[in-house]
Design brief:
Helices cover 60% and strands 0% of the residues.
């Protein structure tokens, strides 16, 4: 079974709820890319943007040390 082809199929999507802490961890680790996400409501978009900002600031601070 080729999972790459299945992942590209629009009918093979799931809706999932995770904590903002887990979201930040996945973004920080590189296991989840923002381009792979779609916000379904305004609160989700706000939390995702906040996680991105926090991740970016954290990465920038590490690079300045």
């Amino acid at each position: 079974m080729n999972t790459e082809n299945r992942a590209d199929n629009g009918s093979n999507k799931v809706k999932l709820e995770i904590s903002s802490t887990v979201l930040a961890s996945l973004l920080n680790s590189g296991l989840l890319k923002v381009a792979e996400c779609k916000c379904l409501d305004a609160n989700t978009k706000r939390v995702l943007w906040q996680s991105l900002l926090t991740t970016s600031l954290s990465a920038e601070q590490k690079s300045c040390m």
